[in-house]
């Protein structure tokens, strides 16, 4: 009984710990990279590229095929061993092994293997880009939750001040120091803040659900994130020149690597297409054998009368007959040879070379070469466009990060100013030198300044990390 209770307590403690788990940003990113469907599909593309490479390697291996057949013939048929026509019923077995090997095919097999390596590399780059994109999506969703939580804390904190002011105002109204309208004004402010708190709580819950859906986590009720320990961590990227960031981006970003690999693939496709203009030389070897249970006939000489005489012609002019002697034979049915013996007796081999020279094939080879040339030019344009797009994106990210930093610094100054104004207004209100409406307006401006500071902070964090990502820092190594 005690053991059962102990196990129950341990299980309850484990479930409670699991329900209270708070996910860090690193855990969210790692979970997304392991479970996201888009990432899994990109990983399948890498696996498929490995299969293509295996197939390309197989082109260098001889082809070996074996076949056999069993048939029963009734009526007039040709004996597969003697090739004589027989009217009977017999069973026949045939077997064959063929070996083929391509000696030269215009280097197309070699080019296909090279192309498979390039395709595998391109698939890996696409997987890397997908992981970077997913990591950014997760980071953005995570920071959105942090922003909503921070705003909620601001609203709750300020509402606590409002609650204290209600008590203070109630005392002053009861003492006759303040009119009852001030109390009503403060209570109206409290009601508005309570509504804002409810909306903020809904915003936190919705952003948590969105993040959980991105992570493919179904337990929405118990999903939560670690909301402490995240601040602005600048690895020095904001002090770097835009040209340095752009050069690093062109060197490391998967978008450029993918476009470059597509150009290399197009070049390889062109080489493969041109290989169809060359002759193909292949070698072959074949072995076959056969068996039948049909009886056959052999000719034997009559021992009693071994020679017969026949006229084979006449002498021209005299008409004298020309006589010849021939063996006197008669057919004798022979017994069926054993299965194994027939396999050895009736086997045969064939080997040699085969040369195919392309001469005219309806311009299909020429047309294919032209198509691959056009595709090569298209991939070169795509590479150029990818470089332009990356340059534009990096410049935009750089400007956004710089602008977000200025916005964050301005928001901090605004909070400091609004805090001073709010404290001054509270002091005046406490001594009755200002009314509740003016005080609530000052407090509202202070609340909005804090909310704007939170927004500017997390917006700057995200845009700073985007810039670091373009500088070549892996998504899993970004620091917050």
TrEMBL record:
Coiled-coil stretches noted in the UniProt entry, renumbered to this chain: 242-276
Keywords: Cell outer membrane, Coiled coil, Membrane, Signal, Transmembrane, Transmembrane beta strand, Transport
GO molecular function: efflux transmembrane transporter activity; porin activity
Record-level GO cellular component terms: cell outer membrane; efflux pump complex
Keyword DNA-binding: no
Primary localization: membrane
Entry keyword annotation includes DNA damage: no
Record-linked Pfam families: OEP
Signal peptide: 1-18
Location(s), subcellular: Cell outer membrane
Gene3D superfamilies in UniProt: Outer membrane efflux proteins (OEP)
Family: Belongs to the outer membrane factor (OMF) (TC 1.B.17) family.
Protein name per Swiss-Prot or TrEMBL: Outer membrane protein
Organism expressing this protein natively: Winogradskyella epiphytica
Lineage: Bacteria, Pseudomonadati, Bacteroidota, Flavobacteriia, Flavobacteriales
